[in-house]
């Protein structure tokens, strides 16, 4: 049986491993540590929870202690993973070397003070490390060791260009470790650019979860997800991580659980660094039993007492399912993973199942399933020309018939033929008399004018306002105020008393002032 002492490690590392109660290396550690101690570049992949962090930290610290001025740089995709790497490095080397953490959301002044003390080991996220390089507060010309942890996740988060800028500041002669939970083609391409004659170390299948994780699914509707979740939480013991797909969903679900007497905290990318640290501390110390999180916690969160992982929302990417459930069953312990699958999640679950069974993701399953579902739910029937209704049947005469929609109006009479009648809308007006023929009368609108005289001929008479006009005529018509109203009243007629202006007229020299209005 291989032990850490057989690697010929420095005494302080053996003592630190004993304090941490770590005696037997994992398969990835057994293969990576000797290769790293010999100075080889390493491209490693293994299942989550198999000890990849120690697999590169032990040879890194050993080789770093053999030099006097060299430094090492470790980059991780998330703040939580970077903080855990810093804690593990401090546990291993004790006070032998200074370790600094450079992550976003942390105090810049605090980081500048730590950099002035000359750290030998720098751990951080790509974004904040690049900020310090741009400011000129970090120099990497003495960095002889580089570690890229969870490289696939950094590429997924869009750090490809940032990584290139950072690596450009490093010496070409260096030892590089690149570890990834999955090995997509992009990782292999990146390894060709950053690694020199690397040792390829792969342990187990990166697309299959640890064997000691028991996986279950519960088929439920979207509306019944929350009651089903409450039932599962009440039947289980131990710490639980619940994964959701959105930040708002994490806050909302944590609040709903707290109202049901299930103490829960939410963790996502919008939280301030101090708040995120408090949430992790409460969960690690068992102050809060439940942690509702987005996929930000699926990488690097190493808490041994996590017993259950519940996928309240399935992940968009099938590989993220492996990383999610990898938060339980760590260090040889047993774990449970439960997924709540609604009918809308059928396509996602098929891709996840295919990845676990075959080791490859097939996005075409999702596309085919969506097309098949759409065909079943909304059958397409070809409609006639100019008929905008989806699924409408074709008319027998194959004519669009612009007047067809008019026939559907409430109370409108049926007409022979299929020709649109422009005057039908006028007949629907309240109080308007019916006319012979079907021609629109443009003068009908004039009879609605206030005070318009009655006309003879084909023009409609008997205005609705006839009674009012008769009472108005008793007062006598008024005299027009300007030329625009000439002819509309008999000459010499006076304006009705009710319409006379109280203010005296001003002499404007024949011109109307801004406050004078003509009565029409």
Structurally, how many domains make up the residues?
2
Distance between the terminal alpha carbons, to the nearest Å? 110 Å
Q: Please, what is the average pLDDT?
A: 78
Percent range for β-strand residues: 5-15%
CATH superfamily of the largest domain: P-loop containing nucleotide triphosphate hydrolases
Helix content: 25-40%
Q: What is the molecular shape?
A: globular
Q: What quaternary form is this?
A: single chain
Strand order across the largest sheet: 3-4-2-5-6-1-7
Largest sheet report: 7 strands, parallel
Helix vs. strand class: alpha/beta
Helix count equals 17
Number of strands: 13
CATH-derived architecture of the largest domain: 3-Layer(aba) Sandwich
